[in-house]
Specification:
With about 270 residues, this protein is α+β, with helices and mostly antiparallel strands. Helix content is about 40%, strand content about 10%. Strand 6 and strand 7 form a beta hairpin. It starts with 9 loop residues before the first helix and ends in a 19-residue tail after the last helix.
């Protein structure tokens, strides 16, 4: 679609959540689509109306990232990005390990730039997390949890939290269906956004600024058990530790300047 369909003023451009966004804050992208109009006296056979691509207002007035805009950002900007995550290191063990590097790279950059954390999230950490969640399978089977979806195994309740305009997210919502979570870019976008929320919850639980490692412990529901000194399965975090270091140590990208390159995982 031509970008000229959407009319934007200089004021709109200044209010965007991120420069890649088509729509300003408080609106979401709706792609061109057809609508079947029922029969009427004027049109006894009904008609098909074409609704052009446009920015629709959000009732919440919050920033809401729609599936259509996720796809637009992915196809418009991600192919030109360089840098982490590391490729070719896991391919012998996981044949699909490099299939989603573009989406990991893009959405880590996007959310880092939206939230500007003191410690930027490292794309290699997202890649290691996806490995332990789904082994890079879009719809992994058999599932340990039938209520988890896609590459980052996002729970149905998490999907609700991400889009609930009156829920725990103050802003920067991601509005998707369960079916759309099987799209790799949409899943990685939503899962990475949720990590930033989990860093907040982990920080509250720990009473200090949570590291990204502690954040992932909360994402995987291990942090509460750890804080309560309850026994839990260390194997998933041990695997993240192993593969994250492997990816970091073998970073074969020319632009290895990720500001989070110093982040080290804690021993378990």
């Amino acid at each position: 679609m031509s970008n000229s369909i959407i009319s934007e003023t200089p004021a709109d451009l200044e209010k965007k959540a991120h420069p890649w966004r088509r729509c300003p804050l408080g609106k979401h992208l709706v792609r061109e689509h057809s609508v079947n109009i029922p029969p009427s006296k004027k049109h006894p056979n009904g008609i098909i109306s074409i609704r052009h691509e446009h920015c629709a207002a959000n009732k919440s007035h919050k920033d809401e990232l729609s599936y259509d805009e996720i796809q637009n950002i992915t196809h418009t900007y991600f192919p030109f990005l360089q840098g982490s995550p590391t490729s070719k290191i896991l391919i012998n063990e996981y044949s699909k390990s490099d299939n989603y590097d573009m989406e990991i790279r893009g959405w880590t950059k996007y959310w880092n730039e939206v939230f500007q954390p003191d410690e930027p999230l490292d794309p290699n950490l997202i890649k290691a997390l996806i490995l332990t969640e789904s082994s890079f399978e879009i719809d992994p089977k058999p599932k340990l949890n039938k209520d988890a979806h896609g590459l980052m195994q996002i729970l149905t309740k998490t999907l609700h939290y991400l889009s609930d305009t009156k829920g725990e997210l103050k802003n920067y919502l991601v509005c998707l269906t369960k079916e759309q979570l099987l799209n790799p870019s949409a899943n990685i976008c939503a899962g990475t956004r949720w990590l930033f929320r989990k860093r907040e919850t982990a920080t509250n639980k720990l009473k200090h600024k949570a590291t990204w490692v502690e954040t992932i412990e909360d994402y995987k529901s291990f942090l509460d058990q750890k804080l309560e000194n309850k026994p839990y399965n260390h194997e998933p975090m041990d695997r993240i530790n192993h593969y994250y270091h492997l990816l970091r140590e073998n970073n074969n990208n020319n632009e290895n300047k990720n500001p989070a390159s110093h982040i080290m995982l804690e021993p378990f």
